[in-house]
Amino acid sequence: MTLLFFFSALGAFNGLLLSLYFFINARKKNFANYFLSLLLLVLSIRIIKSIFFYFNPNLSNIFIQIGLSACLLIGPFLFLYLKSYTEDKKPNWIIHIIPSFTAITILGYFYPYVEHSMIWSTWIIKTIYFQWFVYIVLASKYLHPTIEKIREKEPLKKIDVWLLSIYLGVTFIWLAYSTAAYTSYIVGALSFTFIFYLIILLLIYRNSKESDFSPEKEKYKNKEIDKETLYLIEQKLSIIIEKELFLNPGFNLEEAAKELKITKHLLSQYVNEIVGKSFSSLIKEYRIEKAKKLLETEKNYSVESLGYDSGFNSKSTFFTAFKKITGLTPAEYQKSHLK
Asked: What is the pTM for the complete model shown?
């Protein structure tokens, strides 16, 4: 029993320390870390409440209410953290935090857990977990670029793995609490400790000197392409641009190989070794070039329609790719071009 308490509490208290670390770090480097700091804070408060309630059911009801109330902010902070990384601007946090905070404060005042524990356990807690789930769904759209890389079998960068781990970790904790009635109430706390230390390992790895999370540089070793084939592929590759095949959001390596009448492996090797990038990155560049031309000729394009007309399947994927390749947002690019 002592070991169970130790392991379940370990992650929660260290979560508070890591929350402080990211808060300090946010002031120096990255505004998004404010949201990560607050996410860890409310998660830790929720976990600490679970631990003490499990080992001491006679815990003060006001502490139980604070722990449950913290859950209402977990989803919004997860959403704001991922959003702030994907979109190169500060998100409007007020519309996500203030309504939730106000609602739970008013509910807590008129229906305190001390006197209305049945109301809390029947519908308030269920509403809180539902709101948490809604934000998990909303936040998933900011992982589309990472999911696309996985689908295209493109090596992930450390930031991709980091954001995916944060998202999956919060989702797993939500699942642990949502199914606690069928397992054990302490599972959520133990899950947090396990996930917390996995994230710590990722944080250490993320700060190392390696640039990719899983680089593969020896893939085509001892399989050189002869000069004649190189020339042939170079000529064929221009077909993708001429026919604007990249405007199809589903256009991938397999589709390109069929269109160019060469093997998928040979095309992949050429793009990786000769062009020096992944096929997915090459297609993104073609799409961004198309977007730049549209921005130079059309004045009233919205970011969403511009992305779709350039071959991207989501606004967030387009915005991230455009900023990464050009160093500017679409609006900034158009403004600089019109000068």
From this structure: 0.58
